[in-house]
TrEMBL record:
One of its GO terms (biological process) is DNA repair. The keyword DNA repair applies. This is UvrABC system protein A. SMART domains: AAA (SM00382). Keywords: ATP-binding, Cytoplasm, DNA damage, DNA excision, DNA repair, DNA-binding, Excision nuclease, Metal-binding, Nucleotide-binding, Repeat, Zinc, Zinc-finger. It comes from the Bacteria. Gene3D superfamilies: ABC transporter ATPase domain-like (1.10.8.280), ABC transporter ATPase like domain (1.20.1580.10), P-loop containing nucleotide triphosphate hydrolases (3.40.50.300). It is found in: Cytoplasm. Coiled coil: none annotated. GO terms for molecular function: ATP binding; ATP hydrolysis activity; DNA binding; nuclease activity; zinc ion binding. Belongs to the ABC transporter superfamily. UvrA family. The lineage of its organism: Bacteria, Bacillati, Bacillota, Bacilli, Bacillales. One of its GO terms (cellular component) is cytoplasm.
Length: 751
C-alpha cells in the first residue's frame, strides 16, 4: 500500500443495499460530509459499510466470551475496506435511563459539582457521595432520590358507597372473587355485604392500611400460610415505593390510572437528604445549582474564589462551557435525559466526546443540525472542527447547506433514490459542488422566495395563558384551514407550546412524528398501509384459493424460515451469519403459493416491487390510492416488502403521513418533518402539506428549515432566546412581515 493511502479511509466496490460498486477515499483527520436525496445511499455507505466494518473489527479484539454479549455485525458487502479507525456513532437516538439519569449525570458534570461541595461547602458535611441522589448516603430517604412522590388517588382506588361484594375496591388484583379479594376478606372476617362507609375506623384502617402479617387460612381442604397486607399498603409497597419508570410498560399502564404524582413532600423535588441541602456555597445549595440554567450556572461557578478548589472549578467550567458552546445553555443539570429531544440528545452525546481524550477516532454524525435554528448552526460547526483538530476523522450525513459549507470534503450521493441512486455524483470542495450541476449543487444556489399569496384562515384555535416549562403566560391564536409554522431557536418553547399545551387541549389532532413504525420484523410498507390485504384478496380471487395462503405470517409462509426469507446460523462464538433461506430462496413463501400468479407475477414478485413499479402494475383502485400516497410523500423508491425496521426516522414519518393523507377537516401536527430530507425532497413535502390544507385540513409544523418557513401562510415565532430568556411569542403573522419584526431572529435569517 502506498504511503499516501494511509491518509485515507479507502472503500472499494461497496454494494450494501442500493450501492452500485461504490469506491471512494475519505480523508483522515478531516471533515467529510455526505449529502444527497433521501434514499440515495448515504446511510448505506456511512452506517452500513464504514461504521459496520469498524464495529466488526473492534469486536474481533475481544475475547470469545465477551463477544457473545456484543451485537453481531455481519461483514458489509464490499471488495475492500482499508485504514479504518475506531468509529463512534453520535446519533439522534434518545437518551433513556429513567429518572436517575439527568443531564448532569450523563455528562459527568454532577460528580464534579459534588466534589466541589465536599471541598468547600459550608457547613462542611463529608464526602462527595453525601451529595449524590444516586447514593444511599445522599438521597432523600422519603422519595429514594426520585424527587417526586406518588400517592394513590383514593377516589379511583376505593368506592366508600359500596361493599366488598359490590366491588368497593377498584384497584387491579381485587376483582370480586379474585384471590387477593378473597384473602383480604377472609383474613379479618370482614362482612362482605357491609358498605365501606359503615365500617368502623379500626376496620377501615385494617382493610386499607394493615401492615403485612402472616395468617393461616383454609384453602383447597388444607390450611395454608399466607401474607396479608392492607390493600393501599400493598399497592404502595408494590408500585409506589419503587421507580415506576423501571417497570414494564404494561405494568405502568395498569397502575397509572390509580396514582397521582407530586413533588416529594420532604425534599420538594431536590432529591437530596436534608444534610446535603443544608450545605451551601456562596448561598446556593447543590440542588439550586442543579436547577439553574447552564448559562447562568457557569457564571455562578466562576465567582467561587477558593484556592483549594481551583482545579475542580476549572474542570467544571470547562465542561459547562462545552454545553454553552453547543447551544444547550438553556438546559439545567437536573433535567431528566429521557425528556430531551432527539437533536438535544445528539448534542449532549457530542459534549461527552469533546470532554474525552480519544484521538484518531472516526466520529460519525447523523444530521446533527436537527433541532437547531439557523442562528445556532455555527456553534455546531465549531464543535465539528474542534473534534477534527484534536486529530479525529469526522464523517457527517447532512442536508443543511450551512453545515455542508464547513466540510473539507463533500461526497454527493445520487443521482436519485433507491435503484436510481447508489452512485457518487460529486466529490470535492463546496465551491466545486455549486458548479457540479448535481441536484444538491443546483438547490444550493436557489434564492429563498417568501410566500406572498397567503391563505385566509377559516377560524382559529386559541391557547390561553400557558405557563408550562419556560412559557411566559403565552396566549396565541392558531389559525385553522391554513399552514402554520411554529419556529424559534432551540429551547424557546415550540414543543412545549404545541406538543404539551396545544395537543393537550386538542387530543383529536393527528400527530405525525418520527418514532418507529411497526413492531415486528415482519411489518413492511405493504402491511402497514393495508395494501397487502387488497393484494391478497386479488391473488385469492384470481386463483380461486384461500387468501390466507398469500400471507408470509401464516399459512403461506415458507416452513424453513417461517416467512422471514433468511435463516440465522449460529456458529458457536462467532458472528451469526444471516443467509437467504435455501428452501424459498429468500422469497418467504411456500413453493405451492408461488405457483399462483396475478397478471404473470407471484406474490413474492409483488413484494419486491418498488412503489413506483407497483403503480404501473396495479389497477385496483384502493391499492393505487395507497401507492400514490406513498409516491406523493417521496417514497417511490422503497420496495413493498422492505422491513419497516430498516426505515429511517424521516422515512417513518413520511409513511405515517402517507397513510393519513385522505382525511378531511383534521388537525395535523408535525415535528421537524424535514428531518432526513434533501433540499429537493422538501419541495415534495411542501406540496403534500399544501394539498392537505387545500383539502380543508389545518396543518401545524414545528420547523427551522427556512424553505418551509418561507412558504407558511402563518408563522408563530417563539423566543427571543432559549430557556428562561425565551417562552414568548415574538412574532405572529405572514412571512412577508416577519422580516421587519425587530425581535424575531428567524426574520433576520429569512431576509
Ligand atoms: P439515505 O441514507 O441516502 O437516505 P439509504 O442508504 O438509507 O439512503 O438507502 C438507500 C436505499 O437502500 C433505499 O432504497 C433504501 O430503501 C434501501 N435500504 C436501506 N436499508 C435497507 C435494508 N436494510 N434492506 C433493504 N433495503 C434497504
Ligand atoms: P423548543 O421546542 O423550542 O426547542 P422546548 O419546548 O423543548 O423548546 O423547551 C422550552 C424550555 O422548556 C427549555 O428551557 C427546556 O429546557 C424546557 N423543557 C422542555 N421540556 C421539559 C421537560 N420535560 N422538563 C423540564 N423542562 C423542560
Ligand atoms: Zn424527596
Ligand atoms: Zn424460506
Amino acid at each position: 500500500m502506498s504511503e499516501s493511502n494511509q491518509e485515507y479511509i479507502v472503500i472499494s466496490g461497496a454494494r450494501e443495499n442500493n450501492l452500485k460498486n461504490v469506491s471512494l477515499r475519505i480523508p483522515k483527520r478531516k471533515i467529510t460530509i455526505f449529502t444527497g436525496v433521501s434514499g440515495s445511499g448515504k446511510s448505506s455507505i456511512v452506517f452500513d459499510t464504514i461504521a459496520a466494518e469498524s464495529q466488526r473489527l473492534l469486536n474481533e479484539n475481544f475475547s470469545m466470551f465477551v463477544r457473545t454479549f456484543l451485537p453481531r455485525v455481519p461483514q458489509p458487502e464490499a471488495d475492500a475496506l482499508e485504514n479504518l479507525s475506531m468509529a463512534v456513532i453520535v446519533d439522534q437516538k434518545r437518551l433513556g435511563g429513567g429518572s436517575h439519569s439527568t443531564l448532569g449525570t450523563i455528562t459527568d458534570i454532577s460528580p464534579i459539582l459534588r466534589l466541589l461541595f465536599s471541598r468547600v461547602g459550608q457547613p462542611y458535611v463529608g464526602t462527595a457521595n453525601m451529595f449524590s441522589f444516586n447514593d444511599p448516603l445522599g438521597m432523600c430517604p422519603d422519595c429514594s432520590g426520585i424527587g417526586r412522590s406518588l400517592g394513590i388517588d383514593m377516589s379511583k382506588a376505593v368506592d366508600m358507597s359500596k361493599s366488598l361484594n359490590e366491588g368497593a375496591i377498584m384497584l387491579p388484583d381485587y376483582k370480586v372473587d379474585s384471590m387477593d379479594w378473597t384473602i383480604i376478606m377472609q383474613a379479618d372476617s370482614f362482612d362482605a355485604d357491609k358498605k365501606l362507609s359503615d365500617y368502623s375506623q379500626a376496620e377501615l384502617d385494617q382493610l386499607l392500611y394493615g401492615k403485612a402479617r402472616k395468617v393461616e387460612m383454609p384453602f383447597g381442604g388444607k390450611v395454608i400460610h399466607i401474607t396479608v397486607e392492607g390493600v393501599i399498603e400493598k399497592f404502595t409497597n408494590k408500585y409506589i415505593k419503587r421507580d415506576l419508570k423501571t417497570m414494564s410498560e404494561r405494568t405502568q399502564r395498569t397502575v397509572a390510572p390509580y396514582i397521582s404524582e407530586g413533588p416529594c413532600f420532604s425534599c420538594h423535588g431536590a432529591r437530596l437528604s436534608q444534610a446535603a441541602l443544608g450545605c451551601r456555597i456562596n448561598g446556593h445549595n447543590i440542588a439550586e445549582l442543579s436547577a439553574m440554567e447552564v448559562g447562568r450556572l457557569i457564571r455562578v461557578v466562576r465567582e467561587i474564589d477558593h484556592a483549594v478548589a481551583a482545579p475542580v472549578i476549572k474542570s467544571l467550567t470547562e465542561r459547562l462551557q462545552h454545553l454553552v458552546d453547543i447551544g444547550l445553555d438553556y438546559l439545567t443539570l437536573d433535567r431528566e435525559t429521557d425528556t430531551l429531544s432527539g437533536g438535544e440528545s445528539q448534542r449532549v452525546k457530542m459534549v461527552k466526546h469533546l470532554s474525552g481524550s480519544l484521538v484518531d477516532v472516526t466520529y460519525i454524525f447523523d444530521e446533527p443540525s436537527v433541532g437547531l435554528h439557523p442562528r445556532d448552526v455555527h456553534r455546531l460547526n465549531e464543535l465539528l472542527q474542534k473534534l477534527r483538530d484534536k486529530g479525529n476523522t469526522v464523517i457527517v450525513v447532512e442536508h443543511d447547506s450551512d453545515v455542508i459549507k464547513v466540510a473539507d470534503h463533500i461526497v454527493d450521493v445520487g443521482p436519485h433514490a433507491g435503484s436510481r441512486g447508489g452512485t457518487i455524483v460529486y466529490e470535492g470542495s463546496f465551491e466545486g459542488l455549486l458548479e457540479s450541476g448535481t441536484l444538491t449543487g443546483n438547490y444550493m444556489k436557489r434564492p429563498l422566495q417568501l410566500k406572498q399569496a397567503c391563505r385566509q384562515p377559516s377560524g382559529k384555535l386559541s391557547v390561553k395563558n400557558a405557563t408550562l416549562h419556560n412559557l411566559q403566560n403565552v396566549s396565541a391564536d392558531i389559525p385553522t384551514g391554513v399552514l402554520t409554522v411554529v419556529t424559534g431557536v432551540a429551547g424557546s418553547g415550540k414543543s412545549t407550546l404545541i406538543n404539551d399545551i396545544f395537543l393537550g387541549q386538542h387530543s383529536d389532532a393527528i400527530v405525525i412524528d418520527q418514532s418507529a413504525v411497526g413492531v415486528s420484523t415482519r411489518s413492511n410498507p405493504a402491511t402497514y398501509t393495508g395494501i397487502m390485504d387488497d393484494v391478497r384478496k386479488a391473488f385469492a380471487a384470481a386463483n380461486k384459493v384461500n387468501q390466507g395462503l398469500f400471507s408470509f405470517n401464516s399459512k403461506g409462509a415458507c416452513e424453513n424460515c417461517q416467512g422471514l426469507g433468511v435463516v440465522y446460523t449460529d456458529l458457536a462464538f462467532l458472528d451469526s451469519v444471516k443467509l437467504p433461506c435455501e428452501a424459498c430462496g429468500g422469497k418467504r413463501f411456500k413453493e405451492e403459493v408461488l405457483a399462483y400468479k396475478l397478471d404473470g407475477k407471484t406474490i413474492a414478485d409483488v413484494l419486491e416491487m418498488t412503489v413506483e413499479r407497483a403503480l404501473e402494475f396495479f389497477q385496483i383502485k384502493e391499492v393505487v390510492r395507497k401507492l400514490q400516497a406513498m409516491s406523493d410523500v417521496g417514497l417511490n423508491y422503497i420496495t413493498l416488502g422492505q422491513p419497516l425496521s430498516t426505515l429511517s426516522g424521516g422515512e417513518c414519518q413520511r409513511i405515517k403521513l402517507a397513510s393519513e393523507l385522505h382525511k378531511k377537516g383534521s388537525i395535523y401536527v408535525m415535528d421537524e418533518p424535514t428531518t432526513g430530507l434533501h433540499m429537493s425532497d422538501i419541495g415534495h413535502l411542501l406540496e403534500i402539506m399544501n394539498r392537505l390544507v387545500d383539502a380543508g385540513n389545518t396543518v401545524i409544523v414545528i420547523e427551522h428549515n427556512l424553505d418551509v418557513i418561507s412558504q407558511a401562510d402563518w408563522i408563530i415565532d417563539m423566543g427571543p432566546d432559549g430557556g428562561s430568556r425565551g417562552g414568548q411569542v415574538v412574532f405572529e403573522g405572514p412571512p412577508s412581515q416577519i422580516i421587519n419584526a425587530d425581535r424575531s431572529i428567524t426574520g433576520k435569517y429569512l431576509s
